[in-house]
């Protein structure tokens, strides 16, 4: 199975945070699952850590090591992702979250996130939010 992890999910996973649910951790650590992170998440981390709004372990340059060490694939953004985002209702205005949920929809990936606002976007779809 393929799963897309939200930004906070990735950060909590690599830092060993107790904020990450046990269910989320088990899905990410399951060797039979393909785990993806959006390039939008890496962009979000770079912006927010650069302006001091997001503390991360180490320097931003080391984030890629966490991605590689945990065998997480980076999902690029393509036009179909942006088109889906364009058509989404504005339940959520955060551009990073909107593109992440759009990618989950287009790529047919369950989304690992504690953010319940995603549920309204995934309602009546074959994918779901895992937490």
UniProtKB/TrEMBL annotation:
Residues 4-119 form the PIN domain. It comes from the Bacteria. InterPro entries: PIN-like_dom_sf, PIN_dom, PIN_Sll0205, TA_system_RNase. This is PilT-like protein. Coiled coil: none annotated. PANTHER family: RIBONUCLEASE VAPC16, RIBONUCLEASE VAPC16-RELATED. Pfam families: PIN.
């Amino acid at each position: 199975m393929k799963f897309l992890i939200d930004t906070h999910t990735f950060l909590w996973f690599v830092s060993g945070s107790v904020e990450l649910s046990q269910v989320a951790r088990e899905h990410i650590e399951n060797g039979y699952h393909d785990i993806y992170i959006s390039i939008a998440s890496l962009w979000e981390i770079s912006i927010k850590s650069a302006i001091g709004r997001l503390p991360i372990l180490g320097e931003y340059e080391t984030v890629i090591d966490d991605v590689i060490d945990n065998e997480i694939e980076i999902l690029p953004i393509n036009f179909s992702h942006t088109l889906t985002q364009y058509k989404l209702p504005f339940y959520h205005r955060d551009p990073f979250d909107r593109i992440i949920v759009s990618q989950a929809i287009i790529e047919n990936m369950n989304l690992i996130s504690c953010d319940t606002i995603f549920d309204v976007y995934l309602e009546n779809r074959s994918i779901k939010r895992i937490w």
